[in-house]
Every structure is written in structure tokens, then in C-alpha cells.
Specification:
Layout lengths: L1 E2 L3 E3 L8 E3 L32 H8 L4 E3 L2 H7 L7 E3 L1 H7 L4 E6 L10 H13 L4 E6 L3 H12 L3 E7 H6 L1 H9 L3 E5 L5 H9 L7 H13 L4 E3 L6 H19 L7 E5 L4 H15 L8 E7 L4 H4 L1 E6 L8 E6 L21 H8 L3 E6 L1 H15 L5 H20 L4 E6 L7 H8 L10 H13 L6
Parallel strand pairs: 6-16, 7-8, 7-10, 8-9, 11-12, 11-16, 12-15
Antiparallel strand pairs: 1-2, 2-5, 3-4, 5-6, 13-14
Helix pairs in contact: 1-10, 2-4, 3-14, 4-5, 4-10, 5-7, 10-11, 14-15
The structure holds pyridoxal-5'-phosphate.
The site of pyridoxal-5'-phosphate (PLP) has 21 residues, from α5, α11 and α15.
Length: about 450
């Protein structure tokens, strides 16, 4: 471990050997996923058409700690442990008594936290003889992580990229191609659901819900292919706990403990990855500190703050199991905001349960104020944030400003889940004042949800 005045690094021996699984520590059992065919609790074996057995086992495991395979640790070591920084320049700019720390996941080869699970998923698929993986991607962060990870283990990949992001972020596609992935804009003509949507609406901008349907179809209809998900499911969040486990060691090494743990939420993986280990401290009585967990989302896609807690499908074509989660409805098409990775209609069931039970608070911001926060962070800390985690920066700044008002020395930890150096189009729109505020009308959300309930497509 090394500390200079702002970076707290761990050496390779500090890389955790286990992931932390929250399932045994939830305040009540997680409502089971439902079979889309009969709406009864799904038997895990049914998932074998699209996922490898080891990941299905992890999905329902009640083991608190799960060993990280050595082959996965070895790949992790090409960029992990990631640095924890104290944002002293941002603190000075804000003139706050708060101490702000951020865990920087942008140092990975694809530039975000996503390979923490992509590498694990590619490894388990490879071990079970799978040759090819399909997935969806929004901003392209997840797609490039999966392209990187499959390349490490000699697998092929096909990635359905939400059309609006495919055009907004063309260089993410090139990155995926360089790692050998086939990338198609979604909706595409490669699947029946894509074709149907394009027939009805040729300019459909796409959504993660549609791209998931296409990727699952591709996996279910090809023997050598399985599907890989970049967020939401328990096993994905499990793999991301490497972030919080490292951050905890780094903070311990300087005798700090966070009062707030903050993260942006698209499906919930980077935020869960950072806060679960601190949640474990709380429920196991290891921390006397009443740490608050803050989930941050866009006002353009306000799942936790304005969605309904109900059983919904994960995809637009209603092919996935139904998950109990906060949702805006599986047919929700979010406005084309630049934080492409936060444009998902639902969230991880574990996170939703913890929000419902009051363990986690949720806040939402408009994209213009989020980009202003990203600019301040860039000016002070020198890192250009991905638009997604810029939401966490905005929340951290607001907490630090509240601390200034009350004169309290708060310790804030947030997850800087990725860099924004492939998001220059977004930043160009921002500096040229072409970035509109997007606040999704609450009435429209309510109408959509009520219509789905009436049609029996959303179960309370
Ligand atoms: C950098 C970054 N942060 C956050 C997210 C949101 O996803 P999740 O909530 O699963 O971390 C994404 C999704 O693409 C992302 O690319």
C-alpha cells in the first residue's frame, strides 16, 4: 500500500481473493424471478439455455464469500487494484470541510468497471466449452468490456449496440471491433424482433430493452453461443464487489470510513459493487458508523425515484424472466441523453429491495447540471468522467456543499466508474450549449405503467 497526498494505492497482494455476495444478508429474501411462460417462480435450470451453469449457481448462491478463480485474478491484475483518490483539488474549489474520495475504475483496458464482471463471465463460459457470447450495449462501455474479456479467453462475441449510442459514440464500436467483436446497431435486421420494430418505426433510436431481446434471441438460437448481461443480475453485481472490497482496504489503510457511499445507477452494478462491502459492515455489526448509501440516476430515466416496484420483464420483447424491481415499464424508450448506460427501464432486484426497505436513498439529476459537475471535476481533478458516473460526481458535490453549510466534516466515497474520453461528442454538445435538459414527465410514466398493469404485462 502506498499513500501520497491524493492517491491511495494497493499493491498486487492487496487484490481480494473473494467476492462478497449480499444474498444471505438482505433484510428479507429476494422475490424470486418468474417464468415468462407461466409466471410461476423460475427454476434455475431454465436459464441454462442462455447462461453457463456456474453463473446460474452464483445467481442463487447463499454463500457469503465466493472465491475468485486464479485465472480471473491474473487478468484483473493487468489493471487492478485500481487507485483510490482523495479529491483535494475539488474539495478546495468547493471550500468544503468534507473529505471526498473516489475509486477510479477508468484505468481498465476498456475504461470502466465493466470488465470486472466481463472477465469473470467470459472465463466461466470458456470453462464450460462455450465459443461465442452475445450481449447488448448502451454507451458501448459494456460492449467493449465484453469484447476485451472474450478476446482474453479466445471466445468470439456479437454485440447489439443501441442505435442512438452507435451513432453518438462511433469510436466505442471501433474499440470493440479491434478486440474482434461483431457489432450491429439495434434494432437490427438480424432478429425477428429487430425486424418487426424497424418495419413499424424505421427511426426507432433503440433501447437497452430491445437490444437485450435481440441478444437473447441470438444466444437461444445458436448452440455454441450464450448470452452475457452487464448489470442487474446478482452474479454481475457480485463480481463488481471487487471495487468496494479494495476501497475498504484502501480507506482502512488511512484510518478513514465513509459517511456516504455514492454511485450512479444504470442497472445497479457499479454502485452495488462499491457499497455492498460497506453494507456488510453495517449488517454484521463491524461498523458503528451510520453510513448512507446514495444511488444517483438521470431525471430522463428516473427508475428508482419515479418507477413502480413491481414484477416486470427485463426486455422489450418480454423474453426474459420477470424480476421484482422498480421499473418504468419494459416498453419505456428513454430520451437520447448522453449517459447511454443509464437509459434502462429497470434496476437490479437487490438494489430495488434495499431502496424499498429504506437502506438506500435515491436521487435524480438533469443532464445539464451533471455535465457542469463533470466540468468542475475535470478542471480540478483532471479526469474526464464518463457521463454516467458524472451523476455520482454531482451528488458528491451536493453532499460536500451541504457539509459546508452545516460545518460538518463528512467523508464521502464515490465511484468514478469510467472515463469519458470516448464521449467527446457529448462534451462537444455541452461546451457548445447544445445539450438540452431532459426531465421525463411523471404523468407520462404513470400512464405507461397503468396501461401495462391493465394489460397484465406488469404484475404488482
Ligand atoms: C461508466 C459507466 N458507469 C455506470 C454505468 C451504469 O451501469 P451500472 O449501473 O450497471 O453500473 C455504465 C453503463 O454502461 C457505464 O458505462
Amino acid at each position: 500500500m502506498t499513500v501520497n497526498n491524493r492517491a491511495i494505492t494497493l499493491d498486487k497482494e492487496g487484490l481480494p481473493k473473494v467476492w462478497y455476495n449480499i444474498l444471505p444478508d438482505l433484510p428479507e429474501p429476494l422475490p424470486p424471478p418468474l417464468d415468462p411462460e407461466n409466471r410461476k417462480p423460475l427454476s434455475p435450470e431454465k436459464l441454462e439455455a442462455i447462461f453457463p451453469r456456474e453463473l446460474i449457481k452464483q445467481e442463487v448462491s447463499e454463500e457469503r464469500f465466493i472465491a475468485i478463480p486464479e485465472e480471473v485474478r491474473e487478468v484483473y491484475m493487468s489493471w487492478r487494484p485500481t487507485p483510490l483518490f482523495r479529491a483535494i483539488y475539488l474539495e478546495r474549489k468547493l471550500k468544503t470541510p468534507a473529505k471526498i474520495y473516489y475509486k477510479y475504475e477508468g484505468v481498465s483496458p476498456p475504461g470502466s468497471h465493466k470488465p470486472n464482471t466481463a472477465v469473470a463471465q467470459a472465463y466461466y463460459n470458456m470453462r464450460e466449452g462455450i465459443e461465442r457470447l452475445t450481449t447488448e450495449t448502451g454507451a458501448g462501455q459494456w460492449g467493449s468490456a465484453l469484447a476485451y474479456a472474450t478476446h482474453q479467453f479466445g471466445l468470439k462475441s456479437k454485440i447489439f449496440m443501441v442505435k442512438v449510442s452507435y451513432h453518438q459514440k462511433p469510436f466505442r464500436k471501433v474499440l470493440m471491433n479491434l478486440w474482434g467483436a461483431e457489432v450491429v446497431p439495434s434494432p437490427s435486421n438480424d432478429t425477428p424482433i429487430g425486424k418487426q420494430i424497424l418495419k413499424e418505426e424505421p427511426d426507432n433510436p433503440g433501447s437497452l430493452g430491445i437490444a437485450i431481446s435481440e441478444a437473447i434471441y441470438e444466444a437461444a438460437t445458436n448452440e455454441d453461443t450464450k448470452y452475457s448481461l452487464g448489470s442487474v443480475l446478482n452474479h454481475v453485481l457480485l463480481h463488481q464487489t471487487i471495487i468496494g472490497l479494495e476501497a475498504k482496504r484502501q480507506l482502512e489503510s488511512i484510518d478513514e470510513y465513509p459517511d456516504y457511499v455514492v454511485g450512479a445507477v444504470g442497472g445497479g452494478s457499479n454502485f452495488s459493487g462499491i457499497f455492498w462491502p460497506f453494507y456488510y459492515d453495517r449488517v454484521s455489526g463491524k461498523a458503528d458508523n451510520d453510513t448512507r448509501f446514495i444511488a444517483v440516476e438521470p431525471l430522463a430515466c428516473p427508475t428508482l425515484t419515479n418507477g413502480i416496484y413491481a414484477y416486470d420483464f427485463g426486455d422489450a420483447a418480454r423474453m426474459t424472466p420477470l424480476l421484482k424491481m422498480y421499473t418504468l415499464g419494459h416498453n419505456f424508450i428513454p430520451p437520447p441523453i448522453h449517459a447511454g448506460g443509464l437509459r434502462y427501464h429497470g434496476d437490479a432486484p437487490t438494489l430495488c429491495l434495499l431502496v424499498k426497505k429504506g437502506y438506500v436513498d435515491a436521487v435524480a439529476y438533469d443532464q445539464v447540471e451533471v455535465f457542469e459537475a463533470a466540468q468542475m471535476f475535470f478542471e480540478t481533478e483532471g479526469i474526464l468522467s464518463a457521463p454516467e458516473c458524472a451523476h455520482a460526481i454531482k451528488a458528491a458535490i451536493d453532499i460536500a456543499l451541504e457539509a459546508k453549510k452545516s460545518g460538518e466534516e463528512r467523508v464521502i466515497l464515490f465511484n468514478l466508474s469510467g472515463h469519458g474520453y470516448f464521449d467527446m461528442k457529448a462534451y462537444e454538445d455541452y461546451v457548445e450549449k447544445r445539450l438540452p435538459p431532459y426531465i421525463y414527465p411523471v404523468d407520462k410514466i404513470k400512464d405507461n405503467i397503468n396501461a401495462l398493469i391493465k394489460d397484465g404485462k406488469l404484475l404488482l
